[in-house]
Amino acid sequence: MQNIALIRLQMNHLVTQARQDIHSLSVMDDSSDNSQTLQRLWDTVSSMHFLSEMLANQAMMAGYYFSTVPAPALPAQPGTAAQPGVPPVTPLPNQTLPPPGDLTLTLQELENYDGKNGRPAYVAVGGVVYDVTNNRAWAAATHFGLVAGKDYTAEFASCHAGQEAILATLPIVGRLA
Amino acid sequence: MKKAVLPPDSLTNEAIAARLTNAADENLKKGLINKRNLVYLELNGCSGNIISLLNGQNPSFEYTLNSLVDLRYSNSLMAAEGEQASEKLMAVLDEDFILAVEGAVALKNNGLYNVIGSLDGQPLTGLQAATTLGERASHILAVGACATHGGVSAAKPNPSESVSLQQVLTDREIIKLPGCPVNPDWFLGTLAHLLLYGEPETDNLGRPLMFYSTLIHDRCPRRPFFDRGIFAEKLGDKTCLFKLGCRGPVTRTDCPTRQWNGHVNWPIGDDTPCIGCSQFGFPDAMAPFISFDTTRVVKDE
């Protein structure tokens, strides 16, 4: 449970930062500096929100972990606390999925991955299936009138000719059968 | 000696605008700048852009009307009506003028789906006005979504067969100011740039870079939430609205910093997603404007 120790450390740093900023705000009169401090306070709270969501996720996962793998008694690791720069690792929610890139889908199966009702959003171009769930140009699993879960080889060729680099940025989930 | 603009001169928007307008006023008085004619046509649309223009600040709408240009025709604002107004429009043809057009051009029945006046007892169609004036204007500004790419007027099923201004003036260079409506600053700023320094630098779609160069997503105050994968589940949530269908990641405007209604607020600032009103293809290509089925998990669909 090294993750939880790290998250706790980060959370404590953020709380200290927030208290310091609140103190600064209470003693400062200059309104021009206030906006900077407020912005930092806002960012700090955003980070705390993120960490608490992650903690909640881990708490929900804990049952899963404990039932499958008996948690080994962790010896105290003196090095852990001294590495605040290490980014926390988000646990994968779907442990049952095959490793990315190994999925083989028919066109009909692809249609299930439409990004709705909590499902991921996949699209196919040139026989390769890509994950666009969190791609910024695919808000709500739609993209300029196109919906996820379909083969868009022709559409890609007509709108993004010569822009194959776009595909290289997308995570590959597998291939079309 | 000319006083340099350095602190302690105030650098607020109002102070800068005041210095610019005073300088322009002085140059006008000395005859160094000449006021130019502006013709503002309203074709197949909702007049939303000229209403948005009334909201202009620094320079204000009154300043635009009194000092920036000689507004020769605007069917919403001029006193003349009927044939008299049309005659005023035609009188500009032999002079130098800048043409601003809002609304799409309706092509159906030779343009009869959009009649903007009458001339010599005949209906004057938007199509006629756009082609006649478009051929003679020194500069052309397409204002708003309908004029730049068809917009709402050309949305499916497009009963009036509306098209963008560029499609009827294929050989003219047009500065395009998309937006539904256009922000008053985008129009007034482009117009002022045209008068003071000539045509502004534009991107490959004809949009002035000074207003349309940055993705909303890249200046969004909620960007940290996107980067961390924290998404709003309903309207009113203070986090990233991406899963609800926010079009900020595909729309290029300066809304996050400029804001609206006198630089007060903007959609995302009020917890509602960007609908991509300034993106080419709006509204059809930006639909659906809001989706809840991406965030809400239903057990039995």
From TrEMBL, chain A:
Q: What is this protein called?
A: Predicted heme/steroid binding protein
Organism in which the protein naturally occurs: Salipaludibacillus aurantiacus
Pfam families hit by this protein: Cyt-b5
Can you give the residue ranges of the Cytochrome b5 heme-binding domain?
A: 105-177
Automatic annotation (TrEMBL), chain B:
BP-aspect Gene Ontology terms: anaerobic respiration
Positions of [3Fe-4S] cluster binding: C255, C274, C277
Q: What is its main location?
A: other
Q: Which Pfam families match?
A: NiFe_hyd_SSU_C (PF14720), Oxidored_q6 (PF01058)
The Swiss-Prot or TrEMBL record annotates one GO molecular function as: 4 iron, 4 sulfur cluster binding
Q: Where is the Cytochrome-c3 hydrogenase C-terminal domain?
A: 212-289
Keyword Transmembrane helix annotated? no
Q: Where is the NADH:ubiquinone oxidoreductase-like 20kDa subunit domain?
A: 46-194
Which spans are transmembrane here? Answer: none
The alphabetical list of record keywords is: 3Fe-4S, 4Fe-4S, Iron, Iron-sulfur, Metal-binding, Oxidoreductase, Signal
User: For binding [4Fe-4S] cluster 1, which residues are annotated in this chain's numbering?
Assistant: C46, C146, C180
- The protein's superkingdom reads Bacteria
Cellular component, GO annotation:
[Ni-Fe] hydrogenase complex; cell envelope; ferredoxin hydrogenase complex; membrane
Question: Which residues are listed for [4Fe-4S] cluster 2 binding in this entry?
Answer: H217, C220, C240, C246
* Subcellular location field: Cell envelope
Cofactor(s) needed, names only, are: [4Fe-4S] cluster; [3Fe-4S] cluster
Q: What do we know about how this protein assembles, alone or with others?
A: Heterodimer of a large and a small subunit.
Q: State the family named in the UniProt similarity comment for this chain.
A: Belongs to the [NiFe]/[NiFeSe] hydrogenase small subunit family.
Q: Tell me what this protein is called.
A: Hydrogenase small subunit
